[in-house]
Design a protein that fits this description.
Layout lengths: L7 H7 L3 E3 L6 E8 L10 E4 L4 E6 L4 E6 L4 E6 L5 E7 L4 E6 L4 E6 L5 E6 L7 E4 L4 E8 L2 E8 L5 E7 L6 E3 L5 E6 L5 E6 L4 E7 L4 E9 L4 E8 L1 E7 L5 E6 L4 E7 L4 E6 L3 E9 L2 E9 L6 E5 L4 E6 L8 E7 L2
Antiparallel strand pairs: 1-26, 2-29, 3-4, 4-5, 5-6, 7-8, 8-9, 9-10, 11-12, 12-13, 13-14, 15-16, 16-17, 17-18, 19-20, 20-21, 21-22, 23-24, 24-25, 25-26, 27-28, 28-29
Length: 334
């Protein structure tokens, strides 16, 4: 593998953001971290708030990259993975769960030593992951059209407790905290959102997105009963009422988006898109949403992580057209 090394000053110049908005910039780029040992597509993130660590799935590099966010420096690489996609850190057991798309395996690592502790096999394409702290369980989306679902793992032991069958591969999904529902994007099932009762594993609803296609990212505003679905064709934000499943608002979105976040403190939605922008959508009230800013980013910045406790948004940039892979750090502005 040929490594590329880029001067920090050049990287900062290449990746300086441009903001197209009438408002003050809602996100300010405060750091760009070079990734000379990483090449290829970057997938999802998670955070260890206790030790201030960020975990980044470097899918194209077959590694998990670990960063110290007190210094904004990489501190460890877990290699030997097979297209890592989803990553979840469990603070109760200090375990790192990494879902791999190529072999369908979830690999579980010790959070201190990074030693491999256990592997859990799924039929194929282990993808996005979520942690339910109330039940201490990790949920894993997996599979293809023949055998797809959500696997439920005990977060201390890694034991597979049960699976919930779905009619297609699950993309992003969100767990209710005050209820039992799981909302699941299933673009291959007619661009639907499946509503699952996680107590008994039954699908209790299939919500249509009309003509919109490729519904991948999803975020939840549980307090206001709003579900945010990002579609790629066309690129837009669909706001659904979680009581009725109806679309109540729409807004334009960054193209080829792969992550979306709801910022409850500022009543904003952040959408990171691989075509080169972060969309910032303002919630005027629970029925009205408007585009606040389109912040230009390097092409390939599809996946991100918003950490409200740190007031930061982290963006993984998959280097394209000769540009290097980097991790960008944005500070949320009032």
């Amino acid at each position: 593998m040929i490594k590329r090394f880029w001067p920090v000053a050049l990287i900062a110049l290449l990746f300086a953001p441009a903001v197209h908005a009438q408002h003050p910039a809602p996100l300010r780029l405060i750091d760009t971290i070079p990734l000379p040992g990483v090449q290829g597509r970057i997938d999802h993130f998670d955070m260890d708030l206790i030790h201030r660590r960020l975990f980044m799935s470097a899918l194209g590099n077959n590694t998990l990259e670990v960063f110290d966010l007190r210094t904004n420096k990489p501190i460890h690489t877990i290699s030997g993975l097979h297209e890592p996609q989803g990553v979840t850190y469990v603070p109760k057991s200090n375990r790192i769960f990494v879902a791999n798309g190529d072999d369908g395996i979830v690999r579980i690592f010790d959070g201190d030593t990074y030693k491999l502790l256990k592997v859990v096999h799924f039929p194929s394409d282990a993808d996005d992951t979520r942690y339910d702290s109330d039940t201490n369980r990790v949920f894993v989306g997996y599979g293809d059209e023949g055998h797809a679902g959500l696997g439920i793992l005990e977060a201390s032991t890694g034991d597979l407790l049960e699976t919930i069958r779905l009619p297609g591969h699950p993309e992003s999904f969100q767990l209710e905290e005050s209820g039992a529902r799981i909302f699941v994007n299933i673009p291959t099932a007619g661009n639907k959102v499946a509503v699952v009762n996680r107590r008994d594993g039954r699908i209790v609803g299939m919500w249509s997105l009309g003509k919109a296609q490729d519904n991948f990212p999803m975020a939840l505003d549980e307090k206001d009963h709003r579900l945010f679905i990002i579609t790629r064709a066309p690129p837009e934000v669909l706001v659904l009422d979680t009581e009725s499943g109806k679309i109540i608002a729409e807004a334009s979105s960054a193209g080829h988006a792969d992550d979306v976040w709801y910022d409850e403190a500022h009543k904003r939605i952040y959408v990171s898109g691989g075509l080169g922008s972060i969309s910032v959508i303002q919630q005027e009230d629970v029925r009205h949403y408007s585009t606040m800013a389109q912040i230009r980013t390097p092409p390939g910045g599809r996946t991100s992580l918003f950490v409200p406790e740190l007031n930061r948004l982290y963006l993984g940039v998959w280097g394209r057209v000769g540009q290097p892979e980097v991790l960008q750090v944005y500070e949320v502005q009032p």
